[in-house]
Write a structure and sequence with these properties.
By secondary structure, this protein is an alpha+beta fold. The chain has helices spanning 8-27, 49-58, 86-98, 122-132, 212-217; strands at 29-31, 35-41, 64-70, 108-111, 115-118, 142-146, 149-154, 161-175, 185-201, 206-211, 222-229, 235-242. The strands form 3 sheets. The protein has a 5-stranded antiparallel beta sheet with strand order 1-12-11-8-9, covered by helices on one side. Strands 3-2-4-5 form a 4-stranded mixed beta sheet, sandwiched between helices.
């Protein structure tokens, strides 16, 4: 029988591919946090970098799902936010109505969909996190990975909610060239690149599936599921997923 011979270079390439594939398989993890913190921020807002830094500290706690929603309404000052979207603007505007706020502002943190506070107010943020800790995992989720698929099960409940899928970039540095933060390099964490509804949930037990390969192919390295009372109300459950 003729033996197949591979060149050292080909063997090295195959070894690297095998390691990469193994690493990708093990990189997929999920965790249900106890608190969800949404930061509404802008690269064109001089008051925002301290809030961005605070969010970076919060996300080191796995029980806190911190999300950075970049808005666009400060773009006119002279710097177009590189992550800002109209969808993020709209989500914050819905919170303005739901939380009876007089106006939208940055930096704003919304805690578990229940209360808001100035995003750079560390003591105020800490107080609300402690106040609502555990409300985002009162509805226990179960899940399982099957290759590039993630199955998530919602138990039966008397709650009705919207299920949101949020695509994330875990961390990016941005050199800001114009506007109020000219010359600053700001680090952003859990940057929301896309948010969309997966539909309404009527409280009956339900299992749904995510195609993680599609999210990864779009360039993202994380995503999250948020189960939120319809009308931008309290958040009942969340899942933080690393890709």
């Amino acid at each position: 029988m003729k033996k197949l011979r591979f060149s050292p270079a080909l063997m090295a390439s195959l070894f690297i591919l095998a390691i990469s594939a193994s690493g990708a398989a093990h990189a997929q993890t999920a965790h249900q946090p106890s608190t969800v913190v949404e930061l509404y921020t802008s690269q064109g807002c001089s008051s925002c970098p301290p809030a961005d830094e605070l969010l970076g500290m919060l996300v080191t706690d796995e029980d806190i799902l911190g999300l950075s929603f970049a808005v666009t309404y400060w773009d006119y000052i002279g710097w177009k936010d590189t992550f800002g979207t109209k969808e993020n603007d709209a989500r914050q505007s819905q919170y303005q109505k739901a939380l009876n706020s007089r106006y939208v502002y940055t930096p704003q943190m919304v805690i578990d969909g229940r209360e808001h506070v100035v995003g750079s107010d560390a003591s105020g943020v800490k107080s609300l996190i402690e106040k609502y800790s555990g409300t985002a995992n009162n509805l226990p989720l179960t899940w399982s990975f099957n290759g590039n698929k993630l199955e998530i099960h919602l138990p039966s409940s008397d709650k009705q909610a919207t299920i949101w899928l949020v695509d994330l970039d875990r961390m990016t540095n941005v050199d800001i060239g114009r506007g109020e933060n000219t010359g600053k390099t700001v680090t952003y964490h859990n940057i929301v690149r896309n948010v969309r509804s997966l539909g309404e949930w009527d409280g009956t037990a339900r299992t749904f599936e995510l195609n993680l390969a599609e999210i990864r192919q779009s360039g993202r390295d994380g995503c999250a599921i948020i189960v939120q009372q319809a009308g931008y109300g309290p958040i009942f459950a969340a899942l933080n997923i690393s890709l």
